[in-house]
Amino acid sequence: MEKNKLLITPKTKVLELIEAYPALEEVLINYVPAFEKLKNPVLRRTVAKIATLQQAAAVGGVDVGELINTLRKAIGQKLIMNTTQSDYKASKPSWFNAENVKQELDVREMLSRGEHPVNQVIADLRALPEGAIYKLTAPFLPAPLIDKATSLKFDHWVEKENEALYRVYFIKSSD
Hints:
Number of strands: 4
Structural class: alpha+beta
Shape: elongated
């Protein structure tokens, strides 16, 4: 292992990882086929730039510790024992009622143009009335965005239609 190279942790950004260790891109793709999307230049510039390995593991539905250790082993870094798995809620919550969906945004077109939807979504969420639900449609699990919204006291529910279609519902947390 080279001394000045990036230490791989759950908080490592995907783009930093593949820039520091180009060979790990294939390891990542072989470990989770959903990461094949990293070859799309638009997603590489947008998502890979802000997504952490912890978030990427959630997107791929794999254990973050196993992912980190697979990557570390491939480049000769020491394996880690303890990792934390983010909790992206996939069970329909009691607060969800389709009639309360008051605002929707489909970010697929924005992403195809290379735009970041995070600022738009956060602005929309901040303006969301109490009890109203915000529906976000995306071509992948928008883990960084969910983490940001959670830090701003929003609850969420992830509805996965298929590998290329996710709906995430947000509501202001009642806590």
